[in-house]
UniProtKB/TrEMBL annotation:
GO terms for molecular function: protein kinase inhibitor activity. The keyword Metal-binding does not apply. This is YbhB/YbcL family Raf kinase inhibitor-like protein. Keywords: Protein kinase inhibitor. The lineage of its organism: Bacteria, Pseudomonadati, Bacteroidota, Cytophagia, Cytophagales. It comes from Arcicella lustrica.
């Protein structure tokens, strides 16, 4: 009887710990800074244009799909710049490998779709801040209540709106970049 009570107490304690953990986004490629690997290779930048590895944990149980965005809040556009929008990542997936955002889309999990970035193409376009400027990039994973439906040529703003309307929870990383 004593072993049963101890087992029950440990089970309740461990359940409370796992339920209290927060939805978290991490990257093995980023340590707070965009590297040359993630920088773009246009408009004066000579980076590798490779999307970072991203992984997440503790998503809400009711999650049906994920979406990810990379947004430059300091871009000199008046409205920021969307570097990557990817959506309908299956709920069973918790990792995107480095370069998953390439324009071919072949490295995304089955069912996931690269949305258009602000350069007008589907896939990841690396940051290219003006020389001497430090920009802030928000990388967010969204837990969605259902996969979303969008026209193939949907703008990043429309994609973001539909993602946000279907978000249960989100987790973000803030990283900095300069050239």
């Amino acid at each position: 009887m004593k072993h049963l009570v101890i087992t029950l107490i440990i089970t309740v304690f461990m359940t409370n710990i796992s339920e209290s953990q927060t939805f978290t986004l991490r990257s093995n490629d980023l340590g707070g800074q965009i590297t040359n690997r993630q920088l773009g290779n246009a408009m004066g930048c000579k980076g590798d244009n490779i999307s970072p590895e991203l992984h997440w944990e503790n998503a809400p149980k009711e999650t049906q799909a994920f979406a990810i965005s990379v947004y430059d809040m300091d871009a000199p556009t008046g409205s920021g710049f969307w570097h990557w929008m990817v959506y309908n990542i299956p709920a069973s997936i918790t990792l995107l490998k480095s370069d998953a955002g390439n324009f071919s889309g072949q490295d995304l999990p089955q069912g996931a779709a690269n949305g258009n970035n602000d350069a007008g193409a589907p896939g990841y376009v690396g940051p290219c801040p003006p020389v001497g400027e430090v920009h802030r990039y928000i990388i967010t994973v969204f837990a969605l209540k259902a996969p979303i439906q969008l026209e193939k040529n949907a703008s990043p703003a429309l994609t973001g709106m539909v993602i946000n309307m279907n978000t249960i929870a989100k987790a973000s990383l803030l990283v900095y970049g300069q050239q």
